[in-house]
Amino acid sequence: NPGLFADMNASYTYTNEDALKFLYTLSLTLGVSNENIVDAFEDPVHYIMKEAALPIDVDPLDFDVDNAIERNTIARVLSQGLSKPVGFVLPLNYTEDTWVSSNWEFRRGRLLLIPGDSPLGLRLPMDSLIENPEYEVAPHPEPDLFAEVPELAKFHKKAKKKCAKTDTLSIESNPGDMFVRTALNIEIRNGKLYIFLPPLNHTDAFLELIASIEAVAAKLDIKVVLEGYEPAHDLRLDTIKVTPDPGVIEVNIQPVTSWKSLTDNLFTLYKDAKESRLGTEKFMLDGKHTGTGGGNHVTIGAMKPSDSPLLRRPELLRSLITFWQHHPGLSYLFSGAFIGPTSQAPRVDEGRLENLYELEIAFSQIPLDEEVPFWITDRLFRHMLTDITGNTHRSEFCIDKLYSPDSSSGRLGILELRAFDMPPHPKMALMQNLLIRTLVSLFWRKPYKHKLVRWGTQLHDKFLLEHYVKEDVKDIVAYLNNEGYNFELDWFDPFFEFRFPLYGMATVENVHLELRAAIEPWHVLGEESGSQGTSRYVDSSLERVQIKVNNFTPERFVLTCNSVVIPLSPTGVEGEFVAGVKYKAWQPWSALHPTIGVDTPLVFDIVDKWNQRSIGGMSYFVSHPGGRTYETFPINAGEAESRRVNRFWDFNHTQGGVEYISASVVKQSLVEVNGAKRAVLHKDRPEDKVFLFQDVPLSLEYPNTLDLRRKWAKQ
């Protein structure tokens, strides 16, 4: 009954008498003696010593929000008194289909809690309990998730009947009972009644305990707050977990067996998050629209591990790995801001150089046309689906919970796809799941068995640009359509606009320019000493953009960025070319190449070689064009968009005649022009100034990207 939960925003006035009465009734409902209930006290020695250590001009009973937490804890404890119990403890466990309790005795004569602000159940003096009792409840083994289990029993009616008889029931404590080391705890905090649940490895016992608490709460008309240990892992239970992570709230929703259930869950989750003033997107200081940084990880498996398609047919995992490796667009279109070998979900070919070679050997070891033992999938791929440090969790395809030898909780038959960032809209999240669902269906029917591709540096050259990612996704759509799955490229448009937002467009004498964001992998730097010890920073100084031109005649025109010719690549469409521009956006104190300066703003010029003049261009700023520093984050999408619009100008090209000249002369002539370092040679008269531009030697590793840092070469 949800109505029996306390409203965390409401005020209650429950007292220790209410807590003790609740625990009395609950113990009798469970069939254990209420004589085993122990009063829990704060340790007077600790707080007396803390009080004695306070300065003489500080009142220990005064609360001050500006003081340290420990001082406020001292004031709270002293104000309520050290002789009064702060909660009540009932030793409790479940064994041989019955609840058991025992008496707890302490050398100091009473239960004195470990000092602190944590819930009572986390402050029990477990080390003070008797070490070698005559009889003790044996630990219950972890459940076998592959075993057949009956349906869960229903305990509500049974608990209500037992609770109704507690007014006339009395159970005496038996000193010969088995010793119990776990306990249920009740305390009053801020007027609310908190119940700390003990660790239980029996699912039936946990459900019976919850039903009994519900019956007692209804009988006594008391609203409660539950905390403590969760139930043991059981495939018969649906669980949703909400966990605070740095900067985000992580929500793990229950598995489903139908598309309708998945749709309902995602729409409900997004709706509840919005009503709680939480979102799945954020805006950076400069107005960039990005994800929260939390992952929208997708898991594939079955309701029972033994039914998992990945354990029954390891070739399904091979098909998924191979298809993702063949199509880098899948790794980068849906990912978060951080990609590459040191990211949270590196590709199988972004780490060790020999990984693809070893993977192909592993593929050849998958049994064909014979029974496959469950363990073989884990053993074949565990040591290759890792990051460069060997971390099995940080991988694009994580098999930590497939069939791990460590524990039964790691043998769930689950594959986790981690290279998915949280999209801003539930329909985008459903689109991701639809694609995975389709590929699993296809590869179950028709395994995808092909040689792996040695992409090399193309991964971080071509496939970090929107154009090549879209071409890759277009191939995927065509492949799915040929196999009988009707997909359309337009369905992926929201992802392209979210991952590669448009910065601006300009048209100069029928030549159309389009500037978009591109992806830039930020790599981990070497170890450095910090205030908290040794640290590894991330080089966030670099950014990348994509420039695309239409109606462009390369025999006549040259496109430059900050006086350097951009190596344009044809797209296959007449007059259309594309390239990436990599540049240093800002100068952090720790970054690669500290002697190279910042190359912003980016000024793009269309140079007419026939008429020796720049005919127009555009400019892109990484911060406010006026030199301002934004002090606050955008409050909404409107303000964020205005900041992005202000950073793009469809004008501000370089004036004057042009001249192609050697790199050494250009470097000597670099001047500040409207904030950008451009090579402009001034002569006697202003109208005689000349715009100088140069070529940077084409990179063999990254032929589709202009790296502006290379123009600063000293030799």
Describe the protein.
It is a single chain. By secondary structure, this protein is an alpha+beta fold. The chain is 25% helix and 21% strand. It is built from 16 helices and 32 strands. The chain has a six-stranded mixed beta sheet, covered by helices on one side. A hairpin with a 2-residue loop joins strand 18 (524-530) and strand 19.
Using brief descriptors, characterize the structure shown:
alpha+beta, about 20% strand, single chain, about 725 residues, elongated
Short description:
The chain is α+β, with helices and mostly antiparallel strands. 25% of the residues lie in helices and 21% in strands.
Summarize the SSE layout with pairings.
Elements: H1 16-30, E1 38-42, H2 44-53, H3 69-80, E2 87-91, E3 93-95, E4 98-100, E5 111-113, H4 156-164, E6 183-189, E7 192-197, H5 203-220, E8 224-228, E9 241-245, E10 248-252, H6 259-275, E11 281-283, E12 289-291, E13 298-300, H7 309-312, H8 315-326, H9 328-333, H10 355-364, H11 375-381, E14 397-398, E15 415-417, H12 426-445, H13 466-482, H14 493-499, E16 502-508, E17 511-517, E18 524-530, E19 533-538, E20 542-550, E21 557-561, E22 564-565, E23 569-570, E24 577-584, E25 602-608, E26 613-620, H15 637-646, E27 648-649, E28 657-660, H16 663-668, E29 670-673, E30 676-681, E31 690-693, E32 705-707
